[in-house]
Amino acid sequence: MIDETDILIIGGGLVGASLAVALGQAGLTVTVVEACPLSVDQQPDYDERSIALAQGSQRIFSALGLWQSLQDEVCPIHTIHVSDRGHFGFTRLRREQQGVPALGYVASARVLGKTLLDQLDRLQNVRTLAPAQLIDFRVHDDGVSTRLMLEDQTLECKARLLVAADGAQSSVRDQLGIHSTRRDYGQTAVIANVTTGRGHENVAYERFTDSGPLALLPMSGQRCALVWTVRADQSDDIMGLDDAQFLSRLQERFGYRLGRFVKAGQRHAYPLQLLQARESIRPRMALIGNAMHTLHPVAGQGFNLGLRDVAALAEVVMDARRKGLDIGDNTVLSRYADWRQADQRRVVAFTDSMVRLFGHSLPPVAWLRDAGMLALDMCPPAKRWFGRLTMGSAGRLPRLARGLEL
Ligand SMILES: Cc1cc2nc3c(=O)[nH]c(=O)nc-3n(C[C@H](O)[C@H](O)[C@H](O)COP(=O)(O)OP(=O)(O)OC[C@H]3O[C@@H](n4cnc5c(N)ncnc54)[C@H](O)[C@@H]3O)c2cc1C
Questions:
Q1: CA within 20 to 30 Å of 277's CA: 142, 198, 251, 285, which one?
Q2: Is the bond leading into 283 cis (omega within 30 degrees of zero)?
Q3: Helices 14-25/302-322 angle, 10° precision
């Protein structure tokens, strides 16, 4: 028997699951195919990392009715403090200057994943197949036929639209022959939760050091989520330190703004790359999230950008459905591709230029960037622009990202 579904999503990570929630709530039939078991304990995307959610993402979760269950689990960011270790430059971004209750919110990927999965469980028109794999697909005029592997069974499934949300190593992207540009940053992000001697007062710190940026994001209690970027050849050394050595090395890098670091939780390491797919659509196919763009975590933008892909794709699909049009038609998908281009380019360029600019140790470059940071600190319009960018509020926003229903 051939199964039919409106939307087939390959990949049930944070981005794929968000799209399934958005379109499932809107009444479409959705099938999610995920390679790993889809439970909070076993899904690698729902791990210990902390995600800084921009204001725009908060509005999307609100519009999807998920914020109520998230709000007690997140920590608001009131101020972002950016500094350059060993140099004079710094800048601060405050919520009052931006006229918002918070610049963003820190949430654990595990909590986000659980909230999304709980919601998927409640939607009768959403089906999750996990652990499962896409074997192959064929595109027809009216849909895409796929063969899926679920445990040791082969399942045939036909969809109006297939969405690749299968991450940086996207096999759908490869099978489509979509080229991508890739750059290995030669850096690794080491993450851990740390307890500090002094309260964070809802300040998110981003400190650029000669080995890479170091972020400390506020969490509940006297804890911060650390994202410490080190050169790839240093990561084994950092991961191998005992807790006392690790905290002392961190203290030396960050300084004493948060008092003495008291305790560190379990560490995890993520090698970092920049990846950008050259195309975001093909007939009856769309790419979203990390499958489309994988970023350096320096500015905390990857998931936020992926969530705006979700909001835009869900909007064009639902607009088409309401008009009685074919939701997988090329005109519908082209609206998505054209709409997302500017935001994707802007965020990739912003993130990548931060890594490059702060990666330079040449004195004239360091002087110029520090002068730039101080100028930004003193120039309210430039700060508002910078704020809109980091809060995910730049450009034409989809309805969900404005807090409206789909
Ligand atoms: C250290 C670190 C810190 C970060 N901090 C932030 C932050 O503060 N703010 C922010 O916005 N972003 C942040 N990010 C980025 C964010 O984590 C990612 O952008 C986001 O998780 C990407 O989600 P995704 O669902 O697109 O991709 P993935 O997380 O890669 O999910 C893809 C899913 O597809 C599944 N899959 C793969 N292949 C197949 C297949 N063939 N068939 C079926 N399923 C398949 C995988 O199992 C996986 O579940 C951070 C990233 C890192 C590494």
A1: 142
A2: no
A3: 30
**String of DSSP letters for 250-298:** HHHHH-STT--EEEE---EEEEEEEEEES-SEETTEEE-GGGTEE--GG
- Whole-number Å distance, alpha carbon 75 to ligand 1 midpoint, is 21
Q: What is the pLDDT of residues 241-261, one digit of tens each?
A: 999 999 999 999 999 999 999
Q: Is the pLDDT of residue 186 over 90?
A: yes
From 18, 25, 29, select the one nearest 53 (Cα to Cα): 18
Gyration radius of the chain's alpha carbons: 21
Class of domain 2-73+108-182+274-360+395-402: alpha beta
Consecutive H or E run containing 399: none
pTM to 2 decimal places: 0.93
Atom of ligand 1 nearest to the CA of 45: 29
- What local confidence, expressed as pLDDT, does residue 212 receive? 77
Q: Residue whose CA is closest, atom 1 of ligand 1?
A: 189
pLDDT at 69: 93
SS3 state of residue 205: strand
Query: Cα of 386 to ligand 1 centre, how many Å?
Result: 25
Q: How far is the CA of 309 from the centre of ligand 1 (A)?
A: 14
The Cα 19–Cα 113 span in angstroms is: 13
For the chain, the structural domain boundaries read 2-73+108-182+274-360+395-402
| The token pair that represents 10 in the structure block | 């390959």
Q: How far apart are CA 297 and CA 213, in angstroms?
A: 9
Q: What is the pLDDT of residues 141-169, one digit of tens each?
A: 999 999 999 988 999 999 999 999 999 99
Q: Is the CB of 13 under 6 A from ligand 1?
A: yes
pLDDT of amino acid 171: 96
Q: From CA 292, how far away is CA 280, in angstroms rounded?
A: 7
In the chain, the largest separation of any two C-alpha atoms, in whole Å, equals 68
Pocket test for ligand 1, best of 15, 157, 219, 304 (most atoms within 8 A of CB): 15
pLDDT of residue 358: 59
